[in-house]
Amino acid sequence: MKNYQNMLIVGSQWGDEGKGKITDTLAENFDIVVRYQGGNNAGHTIYVKNKKRVLHLLPSGVLHEHCMSILGQGMVVDLSSLKEEIRQLDDITLTNKNLKISNQAWVVTPYHQILDALREANSQIGTTKKGIGPCYEDRATRRGLKIRDLFDYSSLVKKLDLQAKEKFCLFHHLPEYKKIVEETKISIPSVEECAKNLHSLAEYFSSFIDDTSKYLWDNLDKKRMLFEGAQGILLDPDVGTYPYVTSSNTIAQGVMSGCTIPIEKMDCILGISKCYTTRVGNGPFPSELPTAQASILQKLGNEVGATTGRVRRCGVLDLPLLRYAARISSLTHLALTKFDVFQEFSHHQICTQYRWKNEVYDQYWPFMDWEKIEPIYEEIPAQTLQSMENFQHYIEEQVKIPVPIITFGPNRDQIFYNR
Ligand code: IMP
After folding, report:
1. Most buried residue, 98, 306, 322, 372, by CB count within 10 Å?
2. Confidence class of residue 19 from pLDDT cuts 50, 70 and 90?
């Protein structure tokens, strides 16, 4: 693969496309690896020398000694989960020489997690219940806390009180509050308890907390940077399958607000797609397979979410969706993952077009209702797409962007580069 100065990696389906493995493998060639949106709703499973690593908040750069890893300002950070994630990487030493956390990133508080769990009991979006939505919501309502707000204890108590006050009222009025509190044994901390905990976590991480925006800007064009998107384009709140979406911008353009690096600085915007399609949580899924067929894919592909342990819904490759993702996120390249699973089948069904109101379209357009799209399938004999080169040419012809990478297994060496 060409040596890019700045590369951006985004999921081009509903997340879980295998970005972690590709980011981890490519990180070898970069000096800085940056996460810029989302939080510990993400989950990357990476196998290094057959050892399984699961990352939620940390960029894949932490698995490479020479890389600086950055948690950028667009992220929502649960500091206690971060502490636990670092504890589990017990054989990796992280210091401020290889990890920086933006002082402007948003703080996930226990109130966000409780609200997420209570809302989920009533709305069934299928969130990860990590408090991601409520944390971004507080950013918009100007009740959010940035990491830099955690150091001055007395002002922290005031800010947290503003955030908590409304939530306490809301908690008690949400249907089934009592039942859920009893069932889940959720305890709601007082503002003082919560402030003390957050303050001490900030002290714990103080050597890592920095102005990452300036650090990145100062190093732009000097060091090679890899930007690691979380989730997938179809989970974007503006262009995805709303309301069944996450709360941060998962399209490539999210990098601009998420770490203040202009998108034109990216010389490669790499979309990642599985050779089939999966989604966790609820929401429309045009190429979803019926249960019996889906469960074959689930087993073969081990399609279980890294964050919540939920079994992923499975469907066939959806080309109109990929063409839409490529257009909306200005993808310059595409990487395909899990070719080994795809290869197990003796023939392939692929969704090649959508029918909407008796017209046929090559890609999704926002006038279509995701729930009512009629997918058009083509049956393709396995021998036509058997080799990685054949499959690569097929996708390049269909989606009209180069496919330089195909992966065929979970380890770092199970990756095929074509250019
Ligand atoms: P939230 O991000 O926890 O608010 O969840 C909103 C939706 O995004 C749900 O359907 C989740 O299953 C989905 N989601 C969030 N993070 C991921 C991810 O990393 N992979 C796949 N789906 C995700």
Report:
1. 322
2. very high
pLDDT at 237 over 70: yes
The better pLDDT of the pair 275, 183 is held by 275
Q: Minimum mean pLDDT among 130-134, 254-258, 381-385: which range? A: 381-385
Query: pLDDT by residue (tens digit) across 386-406?
Result: 899 999 999 999 999 999 999
First to last CA, the chain: 5
For 16: left if phi > 0, alpha if psi spans -120 to 50, otherwise beta; the answer is: left
Q: How far apart are CA 170 and CA 182, in angstroms?
A: 17
pLDDT at 419: 66
How far away, in angstroms, is 199 Cα from ligand 1 center? 28
In the residue annotation, 16 being an active-site residue is answered as yes
Pocket test for ligand 1, best of 58, 125, 135, 231 (most atoms within 8 A of CB): 231
Task: Find the radius of gyration of the CA atoms of the chain.
Answer: 21
240 lines ligand 1 (CB under 6 A): no
Looking at the DSSP bridge assignments, the partners of residue 342 are none
Select which of 24, 31, 44, 138 is catalytic.
Answer: 44
Task: Report pLDDT digits (tens) over 127-171.
Answer: 999 999 999 999 999 999 999 999 999 999 999 999 999 999 988
Instruction: State the chain's mean pLDDT as an integer.
Output: 94
CA 396 to ligand 1 center in whole angstroms: 28
What percentage of the chain's residues is helix, strand, coil (to nearest 5)? 40, 25, 40
The two structure tokens encoding residue 164: 């908590």
Residue 185 has pLDDT above 80, yes or no: no
393 catalytic per annotation = no
Pocket test for ligand 1, best of 280, 307, 310, 370 (most atoms within 8 A of CB): 280
CB 236 within 8 A of CB 43: no
Q: How far is the CA of 250 from the centre of ligand 1 (A)?
A: 11
